[in-house]
């Protein structure tokens, strides 16, 4: 598909979880790119990451409460729903099930009942990640991995929700849905990836490196993911405008899932070292200790058992060993072709912005303490 | 020929020695030229081919018979052009018209050129250029058109550079200029060769519709040469590294060679290598479009050598001090691996890509970009030769959700009973039909008692003789007497 023409407005857009890390970036990108849209943000708490633009309104609401959700839909009357809400990865299983599965179904029902045209769901690239195999240039034809084959309950619930969203496509016939599967999201405001890496640098862990470092890994700057969501919304609106004509199977966006990454897989430790360099690390490569996978695994096992007795989590765990030595990257050909997707911010620029943001926050903290 | 140092080297690198021997002993040319059928002038042409190019003459001489002479002549023509362009003893007024009209000189019977300086190493080729012209007459007109077209464009490009005073004093300025220069001296060769291959029906015509691929083939080789020859070129007062790149690292081009600027020089060479490395996946893509083995070898061998050279130059400060090369053993190893199939060439590319990646310095300004370039090559190889089988399970069909799992279990239970009922129904039907038929037969007077008795007897005989046959022959003959 060729690049879509400039669209000043996406109509009335409801961003679920618009105060979260990804959600707030989506809101800013709509404000920037489609300034004639009207944006409503629905979130559990809307005091964080608020956008100052007058076209954005905020609604406190729990998505597991059907009545509350329906009343927000009745007020906003959205054309487009972008659903990015998800609990923190480490939350309890019941929460994951309640928010990701039940919450998504409630949102779908509310959307189906209120003439929403397009529903874009933020899934996760790990829905195809099987604990026993690596992901080498995986595409969307890979089967979902969930239930007893999926050790991460969070991922199982993301997959269930994705299925629910895609099954709801064209029911009713003018309700269109699709799913975006981002991989390795990072950027300003991320709480998982960059802060952990910067902390590792501060603790002096840059001296170690596990494995051969031949494993390519997808990391994605948050704005590129936001960009993917907006392209998907635009594509669904376009499909909606030509109803009841159905696009060719090879061009279809509704009812489909898309991997969205930076399209720049890099060797795992290279990404970490680029982040560390940005944070101030100047350790020469020759001074880095290279641990083989097996040795690291053994140490991880040992540390985990010792720390288990102490009731703490060690600096090196088996899960970390696995993550840093596995290949995990995807093909984004489908998104390139059907959504016209191409990353708008390169990996190095993304790291510069993301680490710059962390250092800035730290500086602010310091000044506060100094006062 | 064999120096003491090389004996020492191969003593400690037996693997490389093995490659040399393997190549010399086992390599069978795909095609061999038949010298007995060649005219005297053609033999002279091949003589010049050997003289002017060591690396290319071997692969050219193994080319498919349809392409052998055209490609050899194409090479000699461009070599002749290059010998005029290179020679600083020829005044510009004299040089320019020759460069711009070289394509017409190709059809001027008996044309030769004797005014090259005495130090120009290929001057003899131009002194006897009439042999090339003589042979050029004989090739297919379609090939002539291609060779003349490329010669014309290259000659004009060279003349433009020769006229450009700024270029002559300061060397190449921007990255765009640098790539344009490489286009004239190498990208055009890529185009010419591709058109010859397609004309001969030995390459996929689609290659002509993706011109960036053949451009990259030439650019990749030329850029590697420019990176590797930095020292040699500066000694000859030539500069091909674009100012746009080196000025980010040092103030004056000569500063790159100062020992105290080692880090900066390395960062600068990394950026040059990055620019080049970004073309590697295009080259592999191009190779996938070649149909014939000799053409594949002709194209793949130089590319493998180029990525290997890129690897020895990467993070190697010696390139600013001397001419860095891959060893003869490595070269033979690469020729063995690059004269078979695309998969092996991809393995070569992956090997050197990873070697480059291993040496990548996290504090280099282009560290992550180089890592991305390496990742891009690996991902491309993965896209044509997937290392992993897609897990079974139809496209995107979900395994199932929790409630669906329960539902499916119930369905399976139901299906199981359905199956049991079905089998029972079939059995009952059969029993009913059979018994009613038997009953009708009995009514009609069938003697089941006799039939049963007979059947029993026959069965007894059958089993009786059957079991006897398994024993010795003698008892069975006893039976027959009964």
From TrEMBL, chain A:
<dbReference type="GO" id="GO:0006696">
    <property type="term" value="P:ergosterol biosynthetic process"/>
</dbReference>
<comment type="similarity">
    <text>Belongs to the 3-beta-HSD family.</text>
</comment>
<dbReference type="Pfam" id="PF01073">
    <property type="entry name" value="3Beta_HSD"/>
</dbReference>
<keyword id="KW-0752">Steroid biosynthesis</keyword>
<dbReference type="GO" id="GO:0005789">
    <property type="term" value="C:endoplasmic reticulum membrane"/>
</dbReference>
<protein>
    <recommendedName>
        <fullName>Sterol-4-alpha-carboxylate 3-dehydrogenase ERG26, decarboxylating</fullName>
    </recommendedName>
</protein>
<keyword id="KW-0520">NAD</keyword>
<dbReference type="InterPro" id="IPR002225">
    <property type="entry name" value="3Beta_OHSteriod_DH/Estase"/>
</dbReference>
<dbReference type="InterPro" id="IPR036291">
    <property type="entry name" value="NAD(P)-bd_dom_sf"/>
</dbReference>
<keyword id="KW-0560">Oxidoreductase</keyword>
<dbReference type="GO" id="GO:0000252">
    <property type="term" value="F:3-beta-hydroxysteroid dehydrogenase [NAD(P)+]/C4-decarboxylase activity"/>
</dbReference>
<keyword id="KW-0256">Endoplasmic reticulum</keyword>
<keyword id="KW-0444">Lipid biosynthesis</keyword>
<keyword id="KW-0443">Lipid metabolism</keyword>
<comment type="subunit">
    <text>Heterotetramer of ERG25, ERG26, ERG27 and ERG28. ERG28 acts as a scaffold to tether ERG27 and other 4,4-demethylation-related enzymes, forming a demethylation enzyme complex, in the endoplasmic reticulum.</text>
</comment>
<keyword id="KW-0472">Membrane</keyword>
<feature type="domain" description="3-beta hydroxysteroid dehydrogenase/isomerase">
    <location>
        <begin position="14"/>
        <end position="284"/>
    </location>
</feature>
From TrEMBL, chain B:
<keyword id="KW-0753">Steroid metabolism</keyword>
<feature type="transmembrane region" description="Helical">
    <location>
        <begin position="419"/>
        <end position="444"/>
    </location>
</feature>
<protein>
    <recommendedName>
        <fullName>Squalene synthase</fullName>
        <ecNumber>2.5.1.21</ecNumber>
    </recommendedName>
</protein>
<dbReference type="InterPro" id="IPR019845">
    <property type="entry name" value="Squalene/phytoene_synthase_CS"/>
</dbReference>
<dbReference type="GO" id="GO:0051996">
    <property type="term" value="F:squalene synthase [NAD(P)H] activity"/>
</dbReference>
<keyword id="KW-1133">Transmembrane helix</keyword>
<keyword id="KW-0752">Steroid biosynthesis</keyword>
<comment type="function">
    <text>Squalene synthase; part of the gene cluster that mediates the biosynthesis of squalestatin S1 (SQS1, also known as zaragozic acid A), a heavily oxidized fungal polyketide that offers potent cholesterol lowering activity by targeting squalene synthase (SS). Catalyzes the condensation of 2 two farnesyl pyrophosphate moieties to form squalene. The presence of a gene encoding a squalene synthase supports the identification of the cluster as being responsible for SQS1 production and suggests a likely mechanism for self-resistance.</text>
</comment>
<comment type="pathway">
    <text>Terpene metabolism; lanosterol biosynthesis; lanosterol from farnesyl diphosphate: step 1/3.</text>
</comment>
<dbReference type="InterPro" id="IPR006449">
    <property type="entry name" value="Squal_synth-like"/>
</dbReference>
<dbReference type="GO" id="GO:0045338">
    <property type="term" value="P:farnesyl diphosphate metabolic process"/>
</dbReference>
<dbReference type="GO" id="GO:0005789">
    <property type="term" value="C:endoplasmic reticulum membrane"/>
</dbReference>
<keyword id="KW-0812">Transmembrane</keyword>
<dbReference type="GO" id="GO:0055056">
    <property type="term" value="F:D-glucose transmembrane transporter activity"/>
</dbReference>
<keyword id="KW-0444">Lipid biosynthesis</keyword>
<dbReference type="InterPro" id="IPR044844">
    <property type="entry name" value="Trans_IPPS_euk-type"/>
</dbReference>
<keyword id="KW-0808">Transferase</keyword>
<comment type="function">
    <text>Catalyzes the condensation of 2 farnesyl pyrophosphate (FPP) moieties to form squalene.</text>
</comment>
<keyword id="KW-0443">Lipid metabolism</keyword>
<comment type="similarity">
    <text>Belongs to the phytoene/squalene synthase family.</text>
</comment>
<dbReference type="GO" id="GO:0006696">
    <property type="term" value="P:ergosterol biosynthetic process"/>
</dbReference>
<keyword id="KW-0511">Multifunctional enzyme</keyword>
